[in-house]
Specification:
single chain, alpha/beta, Arc Repressor Mutant, subunit A, 15 helices, 17 strands, about 20% strand, elongated
């Protein structure tokens, strides 16, 4: 199995992505220099990737889902006609992009004014500030919007009312809100689901497969998720490759999962996967949270001959200058840097460095370890003396004990 630098690519207009080598990080080391971050988003993936690259990260762009276009969406049109067939009592807006898409599609069908009037005569509920902003931008106002940006509080608010015989339109986004609608129906309500921007598999599944492989091999340091369906789709892609357990193990240990908000994180929570998310569900906030948290997990600092060295992801920063390392040599250096100055045996390096890379393959012999150390020294150049050979025992970092 080959070990290459993690990939990145810009998406094609249809949402697919070609697998290609990652763009080189910025010349001046940034806070994410040396780290490889997987981007699973379909919408605004270019913006998220640019924010990460600007901070020095390498990006693996692999949208796990694509959004079906609204044009000629028969299901959405049928739901809209059903909403207009009789007065609505409540309308639930769950996402800003979904609400705007619904209003825009209705306008294209010549029913925009009727839909706005129907919503204006109903009680409008919005899930969080983005949905609220979209509702207000369409000339409407919301009666209630929970601060949590979750549907649970919306459901609690509705269930506190007499719903028998009430008609409730629920604007969905990506996946059906089956349990939400079922709870309303149990209380006697007539629910009209409005499916907007339904998800579908990516046109090109190869980037997702490669992201799974890179993550399992330990070549990705963080994965970003901007929707719950995207997280589910990545796990399903790993399962299709027979790597579900390996992916979950990686996410429970070395790989940082970063979600845009608590709703997005729920599929990971259900699997016991720790994740972080910003207080505000925005891309900029997500990147700031990642930039703050990731270096804390995968950063080692030490001094050699009065020089400050920082091992960060797959890069060594020497007095502020960055030395890029391939994944396997970087893993060797990380293993040695956990206890600078201590000897690490070849057997221990084989066990730790190739744990993910040899899944389903042949374990490396001592020659592979020696070759990896030689590659590491070649990458370090003038700093190659940092890695010392201890005859018959192994290797160590040349730092004072």
């Amino acid at each position: 199995m080959s070990h290459r630098t993690a990939a990145s690519s810009d998406p094609a207009p249809d949402g697919s992505a070609e697998a290609a080598e990652a763009a080189e990080p910025a010349e001046t080391p940034g806070p994410l220099t040396g780290f490889t971050v997987g981007v699973t988003a379909a919408r605004r993936r270019d913006e998220l990737s640019a924010l990460l690259r600007r901070r020095g990260a390498r990006v693996v762009l692999a949208p796990t889902l694509r959004i079906l276009p609204l044009e000629d969406d028969a299901a959405l049109r049928r739901a809209t006609e059903e909403c207009l067939a009789a007065p609505l009592d409540y309308v639930v807006a769950t996402t800003g992009v979904g609400w705007r898409g619904w209003m825009s599609a209705a306008e294209g069908w010549g029913r925009g004014g009727e839909l706005a009037d129907a919503c204006r005569r109903a009680v409008v509920l919005s899930r969080g500030p983005k949905a609220t902003g979209a509702v207000r931008a369409s000339g409407l106002g919301e009666e209630y919007s929970p601060q949590s940006e979750g549907t649970d509080e919306l459901l609690t608010w509705l269930l506190a009312r007499d719903l028998k015989g009430r008609r409730i339109a629920v604007q969905e986004h990506g996946l059906p809100l089956d349990s939400f609608s079922a709870a309303l129906r149990e209380r006697g309500a007539e629910v009209v689901p409005v499916p907007v921007y339904r998800w579908a598999p990516p046109a090109d599944p190869e980037p997702v497969r490669r992201l799974v492989d890179l993550t399992v091999r330990g070549e990705v340091h963080a994965l970003t998720f901007t929707s719950a369906p995207a997280a589910v789709a990545l796990i399903e892609a790993a399962e299709a490759r027979g790597l579900r357990r390996e992916l979950l193990d990686a996410l429970r240990s070395d790989v940082l999962a970063v979600c845009v908000g608590p709703v997005c994180a729920r599929p990971l929570d259900d699997l016991g996967i720790p994740s972080i998310h910003p207080a505000r569900g925005r891309l900029g906030s997500l990147v700031r949270e990642l930039t703050e948290q990731l270096p804390r997990r995968a950063r080692r600092e030490f001094e050699v001959a009065g020089r400050r060295l920082v091992l960060q992801g797959s890069a060594l920063l020497v007095d502020g200058e960055s030395v890029a390392l391939a994944p396997i040599p970087a893993a060797v250096l990380r293993a040695l840097a956990e206890h600078p100055g201590w000897v690490v045996s070849r057997a221990e390096l084989r066990r730790r460095v190739w744990a993910g890379a040899t899944a389903g393959g042949r374990a490396p012999d001592e020659h592979a370890v020696e070759a990896a150390v030689a590659r590491l020294r070649a990458s370090l150049g003038e700093h190659s003396g940092l890695v010392q050979t201890v005859p018959k025992r192994g290797y160590r970092l040349s730092v004072p004990l």
